[in-house]
Amino acid sequence: QSALTQPASVSGSPGQSITISCTGTSSDVGGDNYVSWYQQHPGKAPKLMIFDVSNRPSGVSNRFSGSKSGNTASLTISGLQADDEADYYCNSHTSGGTWVFGGGTKLTVL
Amino acid sequence: QVQLQESGPGLVKPSETLSLTCNVSGGSISSSNYFWGWIRQPPGKGLEWIGNVFYTGNTYYNPSLKSRVTISIDTSKNQFSLRLSFVTAADTAVYYCARRKYGSSWRDYWGQGTLVTVSS
Q1: What is the pLDDT of residue A2?
Q2: Which residues on chain A are in Cβ contact (under 8 Å) with B113?
Q3: In whole angstroms, what is the distance from residue A12 CA to residue B4 CA?
Q4: How far is it, in rounded angstroms, from Cα A94 to Cα A74?
Q5: In Å, how far is B100's CA from the nearest CA of chain A?
């Protein structure tokens, strides 16, 4: 299985919105709604931000939202804050019952 | 509050077997509601899913690692384990254990991660 495709980096100014894409195939992202997004600060374990395409766990800011169209999932962060600067990873279930991560996107808050 | 904690050697020699254990506290590993899994991250690189185990012992593995990986569960000790055989320098990584809800992509609790270095 190949890693899902994410942009290596994105950036935005405080208060702006950014979107990170995650492109796969009909055998993973496009196959069901089991797509999640993780935020990872340096030296820390990943933190779940979005699960099942568009659901937010309790305690995650509503500035974070997820969506999917075809084989591409997206994470949108609105009202960018300095603490949002981190690496973001998408993760998808596959038709083979396994899971695959995206390559990761480094978000820089200018 | 559920907590996961990885333990095991931080240094493994090439061609040998990497063995890690994840101890689960604050919740039962025998629950039918969750899968228990391993994810790794080489230094400076992205996350890679290794595999999952259910309380029944059923497992799913990353196809690229399947020939070398074994994940097992010990419900009496409330822990699960990873064994990766014939390791090389490419297996040097931070290894995380994590819990995922059955029937969902909701992977909520993670261990802090443990660095395993493969070197002679």
Answers
A1: 87
A2: 45
A3: 34
A4: 17
A5: 11
Token pair in block for residue A101: 């991560």
3-class state of residue B71 by DSSP: strand
Per-residue pLDDT of A14-59, as tens digits, reads 999 999 999 999 999 999 999 999 999 999 999 999 999 999 999 9
Nearest to B85 by CA among B37, B15, B13, B38: B15
At A81, list the tokens: 């804050």
Interface contact flag, A45 B48, Cβ < 8 Å? no
Q: Give CA separation, B104 vs A39, A94, B39, B101, in Å.
A: 18, 12, 17, 6
DSSP B15-58: TS-EEEEEEEESS-TT-TTEEEEEEEE-TTS--EEEEEE-TTS-
Alpha helices in A1-110 (DSSP H): none
CB A29 within 8 A of CB A23: yes
At residue B60, the 3 state secondary structure works out as strand
How many Cβ atoms from other residues are within 10 Å of residue A28's Cβ? 26
Residue B79 DSSP SS3: strand
